[in-house]
Amino acid sequence: MTSSDKRAGANPFVGPRPLETGQRIFGRERETEDLYYLLSAERIVLLHSPSGAGKSSLIRAALVPRLRQRFDVRGPTRVNTPAPPGSDVNRYVRSANLGFEQELPEARRRPDELISRMTLTECVMSRPKRRLAPHNLVLIFDQFEEILTADPLALQARQEFFRQLGELLQNPGVWALFALREDYLAPLDPYVSQVPTHMKNRLRVDLLSREAATAAMQGTAELGGRSFAADAVEQLVTDLATVQVQQPDGRFERQVGPHVEPLHLQVACRGLWERMPADDLSIDLQDIVSFGDVTLALASYYEDIVGALGNAERAAREWVGEKLITLNGIRSQVLKGEGMSEGLDNALVAQLVDAHLVRSEQRAGAVWYELAHDRLVDPVRRSNAQWFDSHLHPVQRQAALWARESRPTGLLVLG
């Protein structure tokens, strides 16, 4: 249904990035309440979730505005910034300090050289407060697993960071929230004894339930002046929640799971919004059929990620398509190797992980990689087929087929 005198507003779906402070978030009301009251009561809280569950969006868009009513909020900051070459400063402390300082207007920031030499306590407690700012501080550390993954062998620097963190949090007027991927909970345990409460106050946030995903779609669409028909949103949620489940006889069957990944929701809905006519203000089932192809949206997302790798695009496509997906279309896993993992440089793998295309998981002291979700299998395979068909010479395509089929003589190019 269209209306000639009204048009949809700017696309309210952000795509493959976190929501920011000032943007609305839907479907996370219960988690926001739970986190706010737990942090308020317990002072030091560890928030953990599966990769891609939307911790950063929850913190920035929902929690920070709520906290500012009674706290002077510092952050979110991160601990991933490296120290300058040859510097003897603690990279983790320096990174956290610079993150806290960056939120100030540029004219009020202290020099980086000065901040880099400060302890956490010196940096946080010496910064002038805003006029009328609440007395109590709350510090937010996002993607805190980087304390373990950024320079994994910097053990002394990591111990010193936690010593300074514990010293800072001895102050009863300082609150702190740490957001962490849950697969790093166990590796974090050796360090928490240096922090007051030993970070025992924890809250888990899961991927979006199908009901929460429905609320997120409907609420966000309304911000842009469109409404979702009930059957349309149900169809889109069902598609995004579909996974492959192995049956007792070994077959794989597509079934609707209980969760939707927030990133996939944003990517699919952003693509739908862009493809719809501007004067179509009601998203109905026909719009989903015509413009809401989830496979197309996720394929475009995949293409943007691997396309940004430049000359390594072909290697990344081959690795994702051949190492992370089996011949019968099931996700497979790759063990992280030294320097390279099954033929792809680990620096490139890390970029795929950062983009939430690939998920890393620690098991028994080793790191394994897999495609982030079953729903990405078809988009990846379709995109790869089109890309290789248009970019490779027929002889190259024949050679790739020969290699995949274990080099049979019948596929050799003769003459």
Report on the architecture of this protein.
This protein has 415 residues and is an alpha/beta fold. 44% of the residues lie in helices and 16% in strands. The chain has 17 helices and 16 strands. The strands form 6 sheets. The protein has a 5-stranded parallel sheet, sandwiched between helices. Helix 9 crosses helix 10 (230-241). It is globular and about 75 Å long. The N and C termini lie far apart (61 Å).
Properties at a glance:
415 residues; alpha/beta; five-stranded parallel sheet; 16 strands
Number of E strands? 16
Q: Which structural category do the helix and sheet elements fall into?
A: alpha/beta
**Shape call:** globular
Q: Counting H and I runs of at least 4 residues, what is the number of helices?
A: 17
- Biggest pleated sheet: 5 strands, parallel
C-alpha termini separation: 61 Å
Mean pLDDT: 91
Low-confidence stretches: none
Beta-strand percentage range: 15-25%
User: What helical percentage do the residues reach?
Assistant: 40-55%
Strand order of the largest sheet: 2-3-4-1-5
CA radius of gyration:
24 Å
Write the topology of this structure.
Blueprint: H1 29-42, E1 44-49, H2 55-67, E2 72-77, H3 91-102, H4 112-117, H5 120-126, E3 137-141, H6 146-149, H7 155-168, E4 174-181, H8 185-188, E5 202-204, E6 208-209, H9 210-223, E7 227-228, H10 230-241, E8 242-246, E9 252-256, E10 259-260, H11 262-275, E11 282-283, H12 285-291, H13 294-307, H14 313-323, E12 333-335, E13 340-341, E14 344-345, H15 346-354, E15 358-363, E16 366-371, H16 377-391, H17 394-404
Helix pairs in contact: 1-2, 9-10, 10-12, 11-13, 13-16, 14-16
